[in-house]
Amino acid sequence: MKSITALDIVVIVAYLAGTTVLGMWVGRRQRDAKDYFLAGREIPLWAVMFSVVASETSAITFISIPGLAYTTNLGFLQVAGGYLLGRIVVAYTLLPRYYDGELVTAYALLETRFGLATRRFTSIVFMVTRGLADSVRVFATAIPIALILKGVIPQQYVMPTAVLILGTLTIVYTYRGGMRAVVWTEILQAGVYILGGISAVVILGRLVPDGWSTVWEVAGAAGKLRAIDFYTGFDRPHTIFAGLIGGAFLSIASHGADQLIVQRLLSSRSLRDARMAIIGSGIVVILQFTLFLLVGIGLWTLYAGKQFPTPDSIFPTFIIEQMPHGLVGLLLAAILAATMSTHSGAINALAAASTHDIYLPVTGRSPDDPRTLKVGKLFALAWGVILTGGALLFPKNQQTPVVVIALSIASFTYGGLLGGFFLGIFWKRARQRDAIIGMSVGIFTMAFVVFAKQLSGVLPFLAPLGKIAWPWYVLIGTTITITVGILSSLIGRSSTPPAAQVNRSVAQAA
Fold it and tell me: Are the beta carbons of 181 and 161 closer than 8 angstroms?
C-alpha cells in the first residue's frame, strides 16, 4: 500500500488547524445560551440548507455509501427519494408549530401539548439515540486515521488511538464554537468532500480501461446499476416501497423529531427560510448520494469485486493507494474535519436538550441567565467525552456498513418519538399519560424487532421479525405508538376532548 507522505501530513494538519480557527472565529461572540445553541436565528437560508446536508451525510456518507454500492447496487437511491418526501411533510406540519413558539428544542413543543414529563421523556430518548448513533460516526471516521497510523504504532492500539485523537479534537473544537461554528464549518466540509467525490469519479475514469464506458458496461451486466426494485416484501431494505414509504417516515422523524436537525432549522431567519432549506436539502442529498454511489460502482469495476476486510475500508483504501499526494491529505483531512463539524453539531444538540429540557425546568432558571450559558458548555464537554467513550466500545472488523448501523440505531427510537408528535397534533383526546404510554410501548416493541435476530435463539417466535428491513422500523414504531396512545385515550375518558393540561406558554417552555 502506498504510504502517506510529508506533503499529505502537512495538508492534513494545515486543514484541521484552519477549520478549527474558522470555527473559533465565527463563534467567538456568545452572548447567551440561546445565541450559543441557535446562533441568534441569523443563519441565511442557503447556509442552513447545506448545514442540514452536511450534518446528515458527513463522513459516514463519504466512507460508507461507496462501500454499500460496492457490495450491492444503486438501490439506496430509493431511500433517498423517500427522504425528500419526508422533508416536505415536516416543512408543512411540524416546522410551523416550532416557529409559533420561538422554541430552542423540538421537545418543548410536547410540553405545551402534554406536559413537562413528556418533554423530559422524549428528550432523554433523543439523548440516548443520538449518543449511540454518533459514537458510530466517530468510529467510522477513525477508519482513515487508523490507515494513516497503521505501521506506526502496534495494531491493537490503532483504532483506539484514532478514536481518541478525533474525539479529543472535537471536544476542544465544540466547547468554544457554538452553533455558528457548527454551521459555517459544515458548509466548508460539504464543499471539500463533494470535491473529493468528483475527484474520485475523474480518477476512476482514468484508472479503468476505456474509462466510465467500461464501468457502465461491466457494472450494468452484473446488475450493479439497478436503482429500482418493485419487490413488495418487507425483508429487503432497498425497494421502491421500503425506500419511498420507509425512507419518508425515517426522514420525518430525523428532520422533525430529532434535535440535531431541528436545531439547525430553528437557526433560520424565518419559517419560510426553514421550509425552503429543508426541502432544498432533500434535492441536494439525492444528488450527493448519487455521486458517492457511483464512486462505489466505479470501485467495484476497478477492483473486479474483490473482497475487503470491511465495506467501509474500500474507499479510504482507494484514496491512499490511487489518489495523488496532496489530494490524499486533503481528502483525509476532509473526512476528519467533516465528522468534527457534524460531531460538534451532535454535541451541541445534546447539550441544548440537556440544558433546556432537563436543567432549566429542574432549576427554574431563565434561558437568559448568564449561568445557563456556562452550564450549556459544561454539558457539551460531558457529551463529547461520552460519545468518544462510546466509539471506543464499538466492535472492530464490523462487516455491516456503518451507514446501515447508524440508521438502524436511529430507527430504533424514531418511531416512538414521531408517534408522540403525531399523537399530539392529530389526536385531540390524547393526554400526557397516553403519549408516554404510547411512546414507551412503541420503543419497547421496536427493541424486539431491531434485536430479533440476536434474540431468536432464545425466543424462536421472534425469528420472522428479524427479517424486517430497517427502512420499515420508523413506520412500524410510529404506528404502534399512535395506536396504543389512541387506545389509552379511549379508556376511562368521556367523549369530550380534554382541556389543555399545561398552562405555561410556548415561549416559557422554550
Answer: no
How crowded is the C-beta side of 304, counted as CA atoms within 13 Å?
Answer: 1
Cα–Cα distance between 450 and 473 in angstroms, integer? Answer: 8
CA nearest 26: which of 167, 148, 184, 132? Answer: 184
pLDDT band at 58 (very low <50, low <70, confident <90, very high): low
Write the CB contacts of 155 (distance below 8 Å, at least 6 apart in sequence): none
Q: Which residues contact 302 (CB under 8 A, 6 or more apart)?
A: 204, 207, 208, 318
CB atoms < 10 A from the CB of 111, how many?
Answer: 27
Q: Which residue has the cell 420561538?
A: 102
| Alpha helices, H only, 208-243 | 212-221, 240-241
**435 near 209, Cβ under 8 Å?**
no
208: left (phi over 0), alpha (psi -120 to 50) or beta: beta
Closest CA to 484 of 453, 446, 451: 446
Beta carbons within 8 Å of 192's beta carbon, 6+ residues apart: 330, 331, 333, 334, 337, 338
Residue % of the chain over a pLDDT of 90: 42
In this predicted model, what pLDDT tens digit does every residue of 462-500 receive, in sequence order? 899 989 998 999 999 999 999 999 999 998 654 444 434
Name residue, grid cell 421500503: 242
* Separation in Å, CA 381 to CA 17, 264, 278, 363: 20, 20, 29, 20
Considering only CA atoms, which of 116, 117, 109 is closest in space to residue 424? Answer: 109
Q: What is the pLDDT of residues 297-332, one digit of tens each?
A: 999 999 998 999 888 789 988 988 888 888 888 877
3-state secondary structure string across 154-197: CHHHHHHHHHHHHHHHHHHHHHHHHHHHHHHHHHHHHHHHHHHH
Q: Which of 108, 133, 135 has its CA nearest to residue 122?
A: 108
Q: Give dist(CA 263, CA 257) in Å, integer.
A: 10
- Asked whether residue 291 carries a pLDDT value surpassing 50, the answer given is yes
Mind listing the pLDDT tens digit for each residue in 134-193?
Answer: 777 777 666 666 666 666 677 777 777 777 877 777 777 677 777 887 888 788 878 887
The predicted pLDDT at position 286 comes to 95
pTM summary value: 0.85
Numbers of helices and strands, H then E, in the chain: 22, 0
| Length of the chain counted residue by residue | 510
By the 8 A CB rule, do 201 and 375 touch?
A: no
| Distance (Å, whole) CA 182 – CA 27 | 9
